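ok trying again, last paste got cut off:
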Amino acid sequence: PFSNVGGDSTRQAFCDGLVETLTSKLTQLEQFHGSLWVVPASEVFRNRILSPSEARQAFGANLVITGSLQRLGETFRLTLNLVEPENLRQLNSAVVDVQASNLSTLQDDAVTNVLQMLNLELNPQSRRVIQAGISPVPDAYNFYLQGLGYLQRYENVTNLEAATTLFELAIQQDSTYALAYAGLGEAFWRRYKATRENRWVARAMEASRQAQRLDPRLPEVNISLGMILAGTGRYREAIASFQQALDVDPTNAAAYRGLARAHEALGDVNRAEVIYHRAIQFKPDYWGGYNDLGVFYFRHGWYEKAIHQFRRVVELTPDNPRGYSNLGGVYYQLKRWTEARQMFERSLALKKTYRVCSNLATLHYIEGKYARAARMYEMALELNRNDYRVWANLASAYQWSGEGMEKVQQTYRTAIQLAEREKKINPQDVDVVSHLASYYAMIHEDTKALAAIAEALSLAPNDIRVMYRVAGAYEQMGAREQALKWLIKALEQGYSYAEVRHQPELQQLLADER
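nice, full thing came through this time. structure:
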């Protein structure tokens, strides 16, 4: 991300939005410059990349653009630096000054300077791409970039609310601003995903449709619309939308990913696989395509094929922690515990992430190393204290490693508090409800456990995960007959016996000869 000189929170959102829009434009220029591939801003934010050396480690980047934004009276000053991440040597730099009254030119000037620093030709086609979709109204552009900045951190509902307001302000300033409508549509959609409130779906579709009516050739518009169409089950329309994006930008990784997922949802798995391979053909040296294909194979249980793709990821980017983490996940599914642990530990040595800490803790747990599991869950919670499942896993690890019951129950209560908060956001989330049944049973609040069981079974009576958790809850409450009934039902319908066998609290239940 660009540094925000002065630390103003509003300007930080503007900086983040500027990174997103500059990256988007540079990505669209890949089709004209075969040697250029750009890491999407979403990946930079997702991996919390803060330095050139981290970008090299995570993505294999051999050049990095850093920058800072400063406001000097009525002038915005953007400083850009081209850095070689291997030795942190600055190769080039540029300063872009624009007046607040002419803010819309900032994007054009910035991309132009980046291309010049990279010694890439700015041909008429490239200029058309750079200028496409920009609002000539400075305030509209300002509000749009701020909204885009908040949208980058969509895991926080407050950020989505801020993004919605800012996109609406941009539209008030420029009612023909297609990108602002597309941003608004995505913000509404993310709010639906976060809260499961149906009112946001129609508003997301309406805003995205308006964006496409205003400018149907913008890839960002078609990708945003395609995401919402796919999310509402309109896969054929989504395919058309993603294809429109690829007609304009034939190297767009997000469009390929969306197109493949839509075909996959329609049951055309072979077509989806072909699309993932086509994305790789366009960028054979880009690790992201192999990672997408590996995840696709993983989803379908084609683990050996997934291993091949994730190995290609680490061949291209030997210091990429995600490649090793994904390999660990495949080995875990194959019950190749030693290899899984090696991959998780290699990923952890490169970068300590919440997900890898949690996965490694779970591996220790199923191997019966409960004290080690507890320490690793604690490490995961140092990075993210908001996941109720990890708190519950920590409580279980405490219990079986011999910690006192007071500590165990207090940890479960923290898990319950966080899960109840999730339930308020989305009362229909059966995962949350069924987990709550287990947690309340663990702390002997049987009345609440029974209510959660009834609620979970009414929401998803045929979900084998729910059946399994219901069985565990009944076992904790001493209702052996009900526990057996639901465990047998879960196993008969496909729940993994190996998964059950590794849960110490269910060993007596498994030993029951009935």
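cool. The longest strand covers residues 89-99. The radius of gyration is 25 Å.
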